[in-house]
Amino acid sequence: MSVLPSYVRGEWVTPAVSDTAGRPMTDAVTGEEIGRLATDGIDMAAVAAHGRDTGGPALRDLSFHQRASLLKALAGYLREHREELYAVSARTGATKGDSKFDVDGGIGVLAAYASLGKRELPASGPWLDGDLAPLSRGGTFVGQHVLTPLRGVAVQVNAYNFPCWGPLEKLAPAFLAGVPSIIKPATPTAFLTAELARLIVESGVLPEGSVQFLAGSLTSPSGGDLFDHLTEQDLVSFTGSASTARQLRTHPVLSARAVRFTAEADSLNCSILGPDATPDTPEFDLYVSQLVTEMTVKAGQKCTAIRRAFVPAAQVDAVVEAVRGKLAQVVVGDPSTEGVTMGALAGLEQREEVRRSLKSLTDAAEVVFGDPEQVEVRGADAERGAFLSPVLLRAEGDAAAVHEVEAFGPVSTVMPYSSTAEVVALAARGQGSLAGSVVTADPDFARDVVLGVAPWHGRLLVLDRGDAKESTGHGSPMPQLVHGGPGRAGGGEEMGGVRGVAHHMQRTAVQGSPDMLSAITGRWVPGSARHVTDEHPFRKHLEDLRPGDTVVGGPRPVTEADVEHFAEFTGDTFYAHLDAEAAAANPFFGERVAHGYLVVSFAAGLFVDPAPGPVLANFGVDHLRFLTPVRFGDELTITLTAKDISPRASAAYGEVRWDAEVVNAAGEPVAKYDVLTLVAKRAQEES
């Protein structure tokens, strides 16, 4: 049998071990041994050092947007080669639909983070977290939270159920943050993750050292335990059983050096049918279909699958019969055989583990569909392959085992409830879950249940006829949202939009003068020096602009005629602008005042350079606040300062954020806001 190679320190390494050494991997459908896993001879300290010393600097030399572009390119490459991944995935027992769920889902995460990076993270400079904090009365002492990438490696320990999606959902936020990854797959499906790693390396998209792959244990006879070589700058992201998570958390090095550790573990997820969802409603059908899908996709081997199905007591019989009818149509067998709709578990060992769990469950629950010990299989040998029938159980809610034992396969238990308070309490007995769902058309029931069970859940889906067509379903994590859960579910988060990126970075509070904060962050900070140049800033190309470049316009008086003309022209005839008696009674004004939008319009007229030039467009205004009423006769002055300059790597222009402050003749601020413009690059125009 062949030994699966690891990709470490820039090369593929195959340990020299005997044919019987290492951990065996088998074809889930045929039981045939595929190969073995071993990391003998791999120097784990050197692996970690390669990531830190080679991968880390290469990633940190790139901006967020450049790293996002590489993620997008990798997603495109993998999409072109996904048929190769599908072919290998079939040997894990996955149907074509299962394989798409895993492979395409992982590729989708890469693409989503690529888009997120371009949309929500800075094009250049450090990532600032939150607004500037004034720390002194005179404004000469301020603070700013800054996020910088950790100088370590992100070690990912993956589960067997999603050999593609799992590594990619961990890789994407780490890579975007600028932290290299070490991928360690689970044994049963490591051969598929190895194929994914091969494609990543062959793509040539990612910088050397940014991804390494360990085919086997994190322990090497010559290099020791990888965890022994981790530091306070490293991270560990684990997916697997709660018991293993507890063991890893207590590793002496992780504990002593406060290594960041996040876990996604066992989860007795629930789905709740609302009292309004009777058999004649769309919600009833949605509930039944979702339950059957969660039981059979990936043969129920999903950390988000529905294990506990809570149903109003009056509807238990109807739900059980409807689910049984759909399960009877499920065809178990070789995924390559026509008509097969559910494949095998990941291996014989996993099948026996599910059977053991079922024995604990059946002491407290009745089997209403399926036989844990035998199943009719199409196109394969039922005993050589890791096949198991879908098993539906029925139990009372007070049965302890159904809230404690997870059979990680095509297994779910239907239980009755009689009130909202009871179903909230039953859901909480899972002691923390990754995902839950509420299927109802009753907003009041949905609100009470969601707010009641939210402390025990990382994600909640409210499913009804309104969102059913576009909903991704109970079991599909979305990269824009957190994927994790409290308590038994591990207490960690994977993905989660920018939260997932920030997890790989250090948040530091930087205190100093406005000028120092401006120099450190590369953004103009209120209170720091402005530079009023001879040339109008709107005449400068993107490369020539500097934070602090300023134009001052005004003063311009505001007259009663201006206000009345603006009201007539726009149709904004609010009484505070036109009715002296009503305005006098207003506690904020006391007399007629100018429109806030008239002030902003006048300000634009004071700072705009009208001739064609590098400024291509004004595409928005952020954080607009009107601070002091403008009265007839007031004179307005605008100070516009280049605040943040963000070049777009793939475009002939960039974005400039300008600080706008409008004051009256007394120097009182009457309006503050940010103006957003698109500015052409000189180099692009000249070429």
Structural overview:
There is one protein chain. The chain is of the alpha/beta class and 687 residues long. The chain has a seven-stranded mixed beta sheet with strand order 16-17-18-15-14-19-20, sandwiched between helices. A six-stranded mixed beta sheet has the order 24-25-27-28-29-26. A hairpin with a 3-residue loop joins strand 10 (219-220) and strand 11 (224-225). Helix 3 packs across helix 4 (96-120) and helix 12 runs parallel beside helix 13. The longest helix has 25 residues, at 96-120. The radius of gyration is 30 Å and the shape is globular. The model has no long low-confidence stretch (mean pLDDT 94).
Percent of sequence in beta strands? 25-35%
- Assembly context of the chains: single chain
Average of per-residue pLDDT values:
94
The helix fraction, in percent, is 25-40%
Number of helices: 20
Trace the largest sheet across and list its strands: 16-17-18-15-14-19-20
Distance between the termini: 58 Å
Shape: globular
Using brief descriptors, characterize the structure shown:
6-stranded mixed β-sheet; 20 helices; 7-stranded mixed β-sheet; alpha/beta
